[in-house]
Amino acid sequence: MTGTVALVLAGGRGTRAGDGVPKQYREIGGVPMLRRTLAAFVDHPDIDAVRAVIHPDDADLYNASAEGLAVLAPVFGSESRQGSSYNGLISLLNMNSEKVLIQDAARPFTDPGTIRRIIDSLATSAAAIAALPVIDTMKRGNAQDRVSGTVERAGLWRAQTPQGFRFKAILDAHEAVKDQELTDDAGVAEAMGLPVQLVMGHENNIKITTEDDFMRAETILREQAGGAAPAETRLGTGFDVHRFEPGDHVTLCGIEIPHTARLKGHSDADVGLHAITDALFGALAEGDIGDHFPPSDPQWKSADSAIFLAKAAERVRARRGVITSLDITIICELPKIGPHRAAMRQRIAEICGINPDRVSVKATTTEGLGFTGRAEGIAAQAAAAIQL
């Protein structure tokens, strides 16, 4: 027994990576991220016990993720990371632990060597953090996103977790700085004048926040497996048409635009989202929007088409895939699309849980030809690229 306990902070609500659940419960390689993080400490011979700090609403998600792991019962966190750490530390008081390692749930690839180096450093230091030296040239930007200067990178490090502490020292520090807003536990230690030892971390010990990070995580898993099961790129296309009927606005790519007519359809008739949805289902070879949301079903009458696109994006994630690119072209004479393109890209990205820079929205006309040229309706075509 080394007298070392690990606290895994898993109370965040971050959903920037999509999927509608906090990111720590999303799967990487078919395994919930949180389970991978917990297992890294449960399996380490120098860790005596592991406890997660979770959000009160996530008990079921946590139980499913931690099932079968030899972990202590979780405790509930606070609205802040600092408060969650403190709650976790208080829960360990009766364990007489000498050392505690505090870990972000969103770092599932912490390696055994990093954990051991942190623990070893606590023999001579009250605090130690995993970190990597900055090797890139650092620039300071102004309010206009222009370079205002170059920052000397010598002595700069990128902080990671775990962050390790002598238990009593970090508990006392937390109690002393409750009225301050600090971003990590090392900052709490620094505020109390505790020396914090820098310990070499690992490049794979990434913090997963965005969809791009999940893609990188899958790559790390493949590399750890010796390059097995390479990602497969899939492409899909979609096309949709809706005619006009009396109304005062159209809904395109999730954005309401004032117009002299509306689009007729069983749902909200959003041709843009319908085309993208079909493109994603096509890339998955899982039929089309009508198979999943038949117009004969009354529950979809006047439905927000964001529901359809979100389901298609969910199916990509369920297949352990990621959306790498969406390209949509709207074909109409009116309304003008240009003023709304940025909002459309943002809305599509939000629904799919991806970055807006993976979404392209374009518009064109048919030079007065055909039903769109006669302003009888709007058409849209889309292309989707995914990796499985």
Description:
The protein has 388 residues and is an alpha/beta fold. It has helices at residues 33-42, 59-66, 81-91, 112-121, 167-176, 185-191, 211-224, 271-284, 289-292, 306-318, 341-352, 370-373, and strands at 4-10, 27-28, 31-32, 49-54, 75-76, 99-104, 127-133, 138-141, 147-151, 157-166, 196-200, 233-246, 249-252, 255-258, 261-263, 322-331, 359-364, 377-387. The strands form five sheets. A seven-stranded mixed β-sheet has the order 5-4-1-6-10-7-11, sandwiched between helices. Helix 5 (167-176) packs across helix 6. The protein has two domains: 4-224, Spore Coat Polysaccharide Biosynthesis Protein SpsA, Chain A; 233-387, 60s Ribosomal Protein L30, Chain: A (2-Layer Sandwich), CATH 3.30.1330.50. The radius of gyration is 25 Å and the shape is elongated. The mean pLDDT is 92.
What attributes does this structure have?
single chain; 388 residues; alpha/beta; Spore Coat Polysaccharide Biosynthesis Protein SpsA, Chain A; 60s Ribosomal Protein L30, Chain: A; 2 domains; 7-stranded mixed sheet; 5-stranded mixed sheet; 12 helices; 18 strands; elongated
